[in-house]
Amino acid sequence: MELRPAFRVNGFLVLLVLVVVGGGALAGAIVAAGAASDGGGGAGAAAGAVAGFVVAGLAVVLLTGLTTVGPNEAKVLQFFGRYIGSVNDAGFFWVVPLTTKRRISLRVRNFETQTLKVNDSDGNPVQIAAVVVYRVVDSFKSAFAVDDYEEYVQTQSEAAVRHLATVHPYDSDDPDRTSLRNGAEVAEELTTELSERTALAGIDILEARITHLAYAPEIAQAMLVRQQAAQVVAARSRIVEGAVGMVGMALERLTAEGMVDLDEERRATMVSNLLVVLCGDRSAQPVVNTGSLYS
Question: Where does the Band domain start and stop, copy by copy (predicted)?
């Protein structure tokens, strides 16, 4: 079976007809019953009273088919256990009477998963949580394919977040590896996986995004030191790269302008001094040489 629209008509029109017909039938039945009890109407009055009460009872039964559907919600109809359709339009309707009407919200919903502790692809324990935005697009599947579609979405979301954390590292210097800190790519992958997992329940995943990501407390300090060391190494590499270029430019200018004539030993000494000044993390302390470089 699949989602299909249920039979329905305007509820106000049916309500007016049933009130008029049922009220008239009830009034006629009461009058006929009174005439029959007085003995003036005979068998015809008794039959009219019975017919009036039957019509009035039938009108009451038909009144059970009236239902109200709010904006962004659906009513799933079952007639003695059999699915006969859904009403997705907002309004006041009359449907098949004696049906069970189950309300399914079609509004956009969101929830945040619990903060989960998972090992990433490198084996590092991390804490991760995500927010999921979804809505029901198939009321039949949401009502009958799973026991509780809200609980189903929450469980599948936590499973998808766990799986995502196990296949990606927390951080990576390899451009071919997607890390958990790559927000856009990770969000797209999580949304796609969740959409596949929840399609069975008639759910459309609008967005799924990581809201909390951190190393577990037991390794957080060590990873912080590691990250700081990596940043220091990267900064020093840039400094050395720039210093080498500046030293080369200085030697070329000195040679081109003929300011000094440097042999290999003097050139090496100058390179050493310039690198110390440019690469040092403290101010250089100059030493004045009063003698010869060779003495």
Answer: 64-232
Say which DSSP state 5 is in.
Answer: B
Asked, for residue 2, whether it belongs to a domain, the answer is no
Q: Is 129 strand, coil or helix?
A: strand
For the segment 82-93, what is each residue's pLDDT rounded down to a tens digit?
A: 999 999 999 999
What secondary structure letter does DSSP report for 76?
A: E
Query: Is residue 257 in some structural domain?
Result: yes
Where do the H-state alpha helices sit in 79-127? Answer: none
Q: Do 125 and 83 fall within a single domain?
A: no
110: Cβ contacts below 8 Å, ≥ 6 apart: 131, 132, 133, 134
pLDDT digits (tens, 9 = 90+) for 175-184: 788 888 888 8
The domain boundary, picked from 164, 182, 217, lies at 217
User: CB–CB of 177/169 below 8 Å?
Assistant: yes
Which of 189, 217, 245 is the C-terminal boundary of a domain? 217
Q: Which two tokens stand for residue 21?
A: 């017909």
Contact 250, 160 (CB under 8 A): no
